[in-house]
Amino acid sequence: MATRVIESSVRLDLREEVCPFSFVRTKLQLEKMKPGEILEVVLRGAAIENVPRSAEREGHVVLHHERLGGDYVFYIKKMDCEKRDHACARRDCFHCHDILRDRALEARKEADPEKRLKDLEEGSARLGGASAEEVLAWALEFFGKEKIALATSFGPEDMVLTDMLARIEPAARIFTLDTGRLYQETYCVMDRTMKKYGMKVEVYCPDARELEELTREYGPNLFYDSVENRMSCCRIRKINPLKRVLSTLDAWTCGLRREQSPTRTGVSKVEVVGRDNIIAKINPLAEWTEKDVWDYIRKYDVPSNELHACGFPSIGCAPCTRALKPGEDIRAGRWWWEQPAQKECGLHGKK
Questions:
Q1: Does the pLDDT of residue 126 top 90, yes or no?
Q2: Is 19 one of the catalytic residues?
Q3: Last residue of a domain, which of 41, 76, 109?
Q4: Of 36, 138, 174, 285, whose CB count within 10 A is highest?
């Protein structure tokens, strides 16, 4: 064993971890530490190059490294997150110049779709026992923060993921679909979220001409008349705006959980939608229970919609959401006039 030249606060031996998980564990450990503390990391293989560079890109400082047999030990100083936007002008500083990210983006542009799919499947296969934070951090590293975004309707699951993202990568993309018929309470929690975390939310709205034609033809309450009409409304207000944002992404993150409804029991942490134009859907909370979600919200004082305290566990558009009656399923208040197997708007289809 090499003699330690720097006294560290925490030591991580990641020699048995594959590279993406070495990065994830290092990143999450640094998030837990105080500014000025030193993390000692033992690495091998591709992680020897990638993990220290990723740490520097986040604004931390690699103080020293030394050889340990065929492996390496790195000493990384945790920096204050508010002081990371520095301009050190070092050509090898990956925080200032983001060389690693540029290379990764260029590689993705040139990558063969079949190879990308294989890499995605191999990476996601290792996420079986990973925590929600580890899944999020892995996805950000795999796709790059410009090519993955969190889809939020400001429900409890989405707010948990927003809080996690704010801790892991404050510059991560978040988007919402403003259908034009949301509750005022939803806009209020959106406003509180943006102010609390200082994160911008990309807002996507329906096409005005499509909406005018639909309302002129079928009236403002068409969704009550038939499933077909309701799906047409969802298509214009949700699906089409979603397609616009997905055209800018390689993956999107959702708050889906298996216990939410009969249509979601098969949800996986990573799903692939489409085979030619591959879009991955990341569901970090797939295994979480409703209790897990609310325990997290209370523990970290996460903003939530005031309607949740009024019997609304799941909140969508105002005309299509009602409070629950005693003993009802948590999604029984969504499109309550339809059968449970029909209660999806099409956002989470496999096509």
A1: no
A2: no
A3: 109
A4: 285
Dig out the tokens for 286 from the structure. 């797939």
Tell me the two tokens of residue 200.
């911008």
Residues 129 and 222 in one domain: yes
Q: Do the Cβ atoms of 223 and 260 come closer than 8 Å?
A: no
Biggest CA pair distance of the chain: 78
Residue corresponding to tokens 């925490």:
10
Q: Are 158 and 201 in contact (CB under 8 A)?
A: no
* Domain membership flag for residue 351: no
Rounded Cα gap, residues 110 and 10, in angstroms: 39
CATH code of the domain containing 226: 3.40.50.620
Contacts of 169 (CB under 8 A, 6+ apart): 137, 140, 145
- Global pTM reads 0.69
What Rg value do the Cα atoms of the chain yield, rounded? 22
Q: Which helix (H) or strand (E) holds 73?
A: strand 71-77
DSSP 8-state code for residue 66: E
As a whole-number percent, the residues of the chain with pLDDT over 70 amount to 83
Using DSSP's 3-state secondary structure scheme, residue 204 falls into strand
Which one is predicted more confidently, 72 or 161?
A: 161
| Three-state DSSP state, 6 | coil
Reference 175, options 286, 256, 233, 254; nearest CA is 254
Tell me: the pLDDT tens digits for 164-210? 999 888 899 999 999 999 999 999 999 999 999 999 999 999 999 99
State the catalytic residue, choosing from 234, 317, 320, 345: 345
CB 154 within 8 A of CB 37: no
